[in-house]
Amino acid sequence: MAEGNFDEITERLDEIIAQVRSKDTSLERSLDLFDEAIELGSRAVDMVDSFELSPREADMLDAELATEAQSEQPAEQAETDPDPSGA
């Protein structure tokens, strides 16, 4: 299989999943598809690991994560407080 970009890899992985789920796919073919999926998955992980954000993108991601953490904080406090009414 050609190198492909991340979108092409995920599209092919979706195709593999559909083929493996098909009752018409033999065990031998499913194993071949599994091997291909492992190779594609490794390539995708390598792409993600080597991806670098620009400083602007990194700042935007940090701000988004901080906003998410703040919005989740009250829910986490409610889970840790056994009885918020004090009773």
UniProtKB/TrEMBL annotation:
Keyword Cytoplasm among record annotations: yes
InterPro entries hit by this protein: Exonuc_VII_S (IPR003761), Exonuc_VII_ssu_sf (IPR037004)
Naturally occurring in which organism (per UniProt): Collinsella intestinalis
Pfam families: Exonuc_VII_S
Region Disordered: start-end pairs: 55-87
GO biological process: DNA catabolic process
Name of the protein this chain belongs to: Exodeoxyribonuclease VII small subunit
GO molecular function, one term: exodeoxyribonuclease VII activity
Ranges annotated as biased composition (Low complexity): 66-77
GO cellular component: exodeoxyribonuclease VII complex
Lineage: Bacteria, Bacillati, Actinomycetota, Coriobacteriia, Coriobacteriales
Alphabetical UniProt keywords: Cytoplasm, Exonuclease, Hydrolase, Nuclease
Biased composition (Acidic residues): 78-87
Family from the record: Belongs to the XseB family.
